[in-house]
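Module 6 notes. Inverse folding takes a fixed backbone as the condition and produces residue identities as the prediction. Think of it as a translation problem where the source language is geometry and the target language is the twenty amino acids. Below is one complete input and output pair. Work through it position by position during the lab.
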């Protein structure tokens, strides 16, 4: 296969044949296509897109690059959720144990940080001892025992996505509907699911900010899922501000633990419950929406969800004591409060600037091999639309040292815009299914 001519072909806007995608993905996974050629091809896809058959071929090739979780003879329904990526998005950490505590199995395969967004695996690994590189046999045994495993792509599962994801992260090739769709669905379809719920982010901090294109992304993934026997539903949720208050790995685990104890921020809990309701309904584990919501709330109120999270942590080698004592998590060397530089109304809390601020603090990757510092990040206590007085404490920086603090304060100064007016946009705007798109305006009860 002549890779340069495939790159030129795509660059000029022509489709690549299904068998060439299959071969290319197999060869890239085997290390026979260099990263520089794959990067050029990915960039051509970002600009030129993929035809429907190309997307199907790419997704199948990525899925077939590895093995799948097999559940022959398994008694429980299996469901998962995946987010297209955001800042402060720690929903998976709460949702997986909550849904598992409702008696539905959750084989949750997640990714690492990508671009300015954080990744569930990196967050989980901030828990001392926690392993996410489970084998498929171990994952299945753990799901049988405690109803949930939270794992990454080992070499067994969609290894093509594992490599491509890391490459896209550092080559400016994340923001593409077909590449995001193939990446997410190749992982999810390897999980042997009976249903999948997608959290498709919109707004300035999302990879696909425009709501109409976010709906296109949702519909593309739903099409891939349904065509491969996995009923799929998507909610469009706001990512024009960070979700919750904590942004950064350990800080987000701590906030997720608070959520599992019934003390989570309203917006985080509302998105978590809304996605959880869809998960339970999709696999017939609740009779209607109120019933699904009640079950999820009970899982938190009774402590069963927190208990399940503790069991997941323990099963994956982590220190279970963290559920009662988040101080076990890596702690920042220097912490400083950020105060409103003027009075007024918060008009923006820009997620991309927050995400890039975390990167500068050392909490993200600039090169594939970078190690992240799990302790750094921000806690931001204001949302767009909030009124503040000059000097009010509105955020905190968690850094390695004083130089980090200075950089973090500067990042907050750029990210939090205070003006004369501001508005909190609705939190959950649309529900997308194979049948179409339902607007959900008015569902954001949590907006303060
Ligand atoms: N999440 C993924 O798994 N892949 C992407 O490309 C973007 C978000």
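Target side of the pair, the amino acids:
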């Amino acid at each position: 296969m002549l890779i340069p001519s495939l790159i030129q072909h795509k660059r000029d806007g022509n489709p690549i044949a299904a068998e060439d995608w299959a071969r290319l993905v197999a060869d890239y996974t085997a290390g026979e296509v260099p990263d520089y050629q794959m990067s050029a091809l990915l960039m051509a896809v970002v600009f030129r897109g993929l035809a429907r058959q190309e997307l199907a071929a790419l997704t199948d090739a990525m899925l077939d690059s590895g093995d799948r979780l097999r559940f022959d003879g398994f008694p429980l329904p299996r469901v998962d959720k995946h987010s297209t990526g955001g800042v402060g998005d720690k929903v998976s950490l709460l949702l997986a144990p909550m849904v598992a505590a409702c008696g539905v199995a959750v084989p949750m395969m997640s990714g690492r940080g990508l671009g300015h967004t954080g990744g569930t695996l990196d967050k989980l690994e901030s828990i001392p001892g926690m392993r996410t590189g489970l084998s498929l046999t171990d994952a299945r045994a753990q799901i049988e025992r405690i109803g949930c495993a939270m794992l990454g792509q080992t070499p067994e599962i969609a290894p093509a996505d594992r490599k491509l994801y890391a490459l896209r992260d550092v080559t400016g090739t994340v923001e593409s509907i077909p590449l995001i769709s193939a990446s997410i669905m190749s992982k999810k379809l390897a999980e042997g699911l009976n249903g999948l719920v997608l959290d498709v982010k919109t707004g300035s901090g999302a990879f696909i900010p425009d709501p109409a294109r976010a709906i296109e992304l949702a519909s593309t993934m739903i099409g891939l899922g349904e065509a491969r026997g996995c009923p799929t539903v998507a909610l469009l949720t706001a990512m024009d501000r960070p979700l919750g208050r904590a942004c950064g790995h350990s800080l987000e685990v701590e906030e997720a633990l608070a959520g599992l104890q019934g003390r989570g921020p309203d917006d985080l809990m509302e998105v978590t419950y809304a996605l959880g309701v869809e998960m339970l309904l999709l696999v017939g584990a609740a009779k209607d929406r109120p019933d699904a919501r009640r079950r999820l709330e009970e899982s938190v109120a009774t402590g069963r969800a927190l208990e399940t999270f503790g069991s997941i942590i323990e099963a994956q080698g982590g220190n279970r004591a963290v559920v009662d004592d988040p101080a076990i998590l890596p702690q920042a060397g220097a912490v400083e409060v950020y105060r409103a530089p003027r009075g007024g109304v918060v008009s923006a809390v820009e997620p991309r600037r927050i995400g890039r601020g975390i990167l500068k603090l050392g909490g993200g990757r600039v090169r594939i091999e970078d190690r992240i510092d799990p302790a750094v990040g921000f806690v931001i206590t204001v949302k767009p639309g909030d009124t503040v007085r000059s000097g009010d404490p509105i955020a905190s920086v968690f850094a390695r040292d004083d130089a980090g603090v200075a950089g973090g304060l500067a990042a907050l100064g750029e990210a939090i815009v205070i003006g004369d007016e501001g508005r909190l946009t609705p939190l959950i705007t649309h529900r997308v299914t194979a049948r179409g798109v339902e607007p959900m305006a008015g569902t954001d009860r949590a907006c303060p």
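Reference fact for the lab report: The mean pLDDT is 95.
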